[in-house]
Amino acid sequence: YQDGVMKKQVDGKDTVAHIFEYTTQLSVDATPQLVLPQADNPNNLVPVQIIFIVKAKNQKKINSHRWLFNAVGSMLNPEICVLIDAGTKPGHKSIYYLWEAFYNDRNLGGCCGEIHAMIQGGKKLLNPLVAA
């Protein structure tokens, strides 16, 4: 995170989206075990490039899908795309399980995860905004 890096305008034009890129040097194999790169090891996994896009304005889910598949996907030709709604907190292995489904079945065209409320014993349901 870099405070102040996101701008509302650039050269007098409103910002449409913020794009962040990170390339991890660590990988997870199919067991799932953390794989650290070793010098001169032909079994090293390639680094994983992660691109995170935050739209400046909410224009609904279909708009996000168009952005990802028509614009970003056509330029980068990614092997796997994961879409996560704002405010959704994936479980600690959720993204791994999505990746694993694609890894184990090359003919798989799409998959989805399960969403459940994290209500922590229900005490937060006393707040009407949370309960709604």
From TrEMBL:
It is a multi-pass membrane protein. Its EC number is 2.4.1.16. It is an enzyme of class 2 (transferase). Its main location: membrane. GO terms for molecular function: chitin synthase activity. It is found in: Cell membrane. It catalyses: [(1->4)-N-acetyl-beta-D-glucosaminyl](n) + UDP-N-acetyl-alpha-D-glucosamine = [(1->4)-N-acetyl-beta-D-glucosaminyl](n+1) + UDP + H(+). Keywords: Cell membrane, Cell wall biogenesis/degradation, Glycosyltransferase, Membrane, Transferase, Transmembrane. GO terms for biological process: cell wall organization; chitin biosynthetic process. Pfam families: Chitin_synth_1 (PF01644). The keyword Cytoplasm does not apply. GO terms for cellular component: cell septum; plasma membrane. PANTHER family: CHITIN SYNTHASE (PTHR22914), CHITIN SYNTHASE B (PTHR22914:SF11). Belongs to the chitin synthase family. Class III subfamily. Polymerizes chitin, a structural polymer of the cell wall and septum, by transferring the sugar moiety of UDP-GlcNAc to the non-reducing end of the growing chitin polymer. This is Chitin synthase.
